[in-house]
Amino acid sequence: MTDTALHRDPEEAAALRKHILSRIVIYGLLAIFASVYLLPLFVVIFNSFRDLPEIAQNGLIAFPRSFSFKSWFDAWGTYCINGACEGMAKNFWNSVYMVIPATIISTLLGALNGYILSKWRFKGSELLFTCMLFGVFMPGQIALMPWAYILGTTGLNKTMWGLVLVHVVQGISFTTLFCRNFYVNIPDDLIKAARIDGAGFWRIFYKIILPISPPILIVTVIWQFTGIWNEFLYGVVLTTGKNQPITAALVALSSNGTNVRNYDVMSAGVLIGALPPLLVYFFGGKYFVRGLTQGAIK
Amino acid sequence: MAELLIRDVRKSFGSVEVLKGIDLDVQSGEFIALVGPSGCGKSTLLAIIAGLEKATSGTISIGNRVVNNVAPKDRDIAMVFQSYALYPTMTVRENMLFGMEARHVPKPEREAALKRVSALLQIDQLMNRKPGQLSGGQRQRVAMGRALVRDPALFLFDEPLSNLDAKLRVEMRTEIKKLHQRVGKTTVYVTHDQVEAMTLSSRIAVLNKGVLQQFGEPQTIYDKPANMFVAGFMGSPAMNFLPAILGSGTVEIDGAGVPLPLARTVSAKPGKRVVLGVRPEHLTLAGTSSDRATLTAPAELVEPTGSETHVVFRLGARELVARFVPSQAPRAGETMRLAVDMEKACLFDADTEAAIS
Hints:
The complex is a heterodimer. Chain A is mostly helical. Chain A contains 13 helices and no strands.
């Protein structure tokens, strides 16, 4: 007994040392790369709390020597953008009012489309699905002129409802793809059993399909929310001034015509604009990965 | 309670015809097994009865009502699926109530039906669990319970026991038989397992390649198969098929040398090529000289199963399987004289494979 224990100890110790060393190397490398990616974020966060004179004096990349919330209040409520000194508050709420209905509607339509294209196939439904997939690969710029025309003739231009319509339609390809691929894995027998039980199209949808759907609905909601919130091109082209979403306001803010670069206000503005999608990822991120990797039925 | 009539039902998927004119009369309260190898069309036929598939032609009627254009939910049927198809997000209680809710059955009736069926199947204590928390056998019970609460005219089972392990399968088989004896509903049961078909049903319909081969009581199917397919499909180990030539009142197996006397007169003429079908239990060790039909063959392989021993004999180019009580089984290598029970042996036409009367 003692003999074998003595014999084994050095081997175990060596293995342990090797294990610890490899962990140190792995985590060290990970920490380096993480800090490289996080560095710009830290710079922006620091600058949003620094005074402008101090930034000018110590440079853009430096540890803060001063601390105030002034630039946050400026960016939110008083900073002059496009001639109006009302900050980004209005644009922030524009984005909120746009992103919430657009996300909900496009997600629900995607779920409905996915349900039909996987469980109620009809002649030509596969072709229809293939056509819808084109929307996934199509760059947004292609549709810019048609959208400008449609919104112009329907009178929806320069309103948030116009942008809601655009984002719903542009988003359907993705939401349909996500939901359809999720629902394909739900056994057809469930639908057959429900049909024999006496349930129709809608009852099966909201009593059987939707309760199974949370994993994929979370994925589509996060995808749509961040995509629509961060979208810039449609926002800047199809709306103007106070009706613009926050992404358009951010660009306007940074290109203000004075010769002073207000790095403090710009940093705060960027963070205000980035906060909602960050929070969505923060709270929904783990469901995002889970929803994409796990099947419909465990 | 209702009878089910199937008249010349055909079904094609594109150019592939999977059902080639099926006729079946199922009487009220009968338990019918649809049996056949995979791809024979039995599941398609069940789906057509359920209304989940449309027949290309032919009629289906349930209880004197042609239901070809009636939606599944209005056919007064219930179905148990191989995968059970329990709604995964609902509890057992919700699963069982779902059908009645969809049909707007009044609440007191729903509760009464639930109580009746849960007591019948002994699943009261599972009511608040989700399907994921149930064992295979419990899911099977719940799936049957969901079918039973609605008190349908016709029960459909689509290979309901295939997903269970061997022991549980035998248990549930008995359960289903008891259940049918108690509720007495007309039942159509699809299976590829001939033992299930034999044990459960009052009549068996054997399908192959979309054609109904034979429809009759289990013992008739077993004893008097209509053709070589039915004979070979039903029974395990399978029936021995021995190519032979007909003499006058005898049949001579190729390579065996001695003609065997027939137990009855047959319609076919001497000199005709036939196939003699002998079930493994109809071969015994020839003891007394009174055995008139005997074969001599060496035992090649011995397979004990515990309750009985299967012995493979070599007869010319053919193998011959016989079934023995373990204590009487010959050993491998021994050459035995085997008596053929000619009363029970079957004769088939070598060309058409149909039974010779």
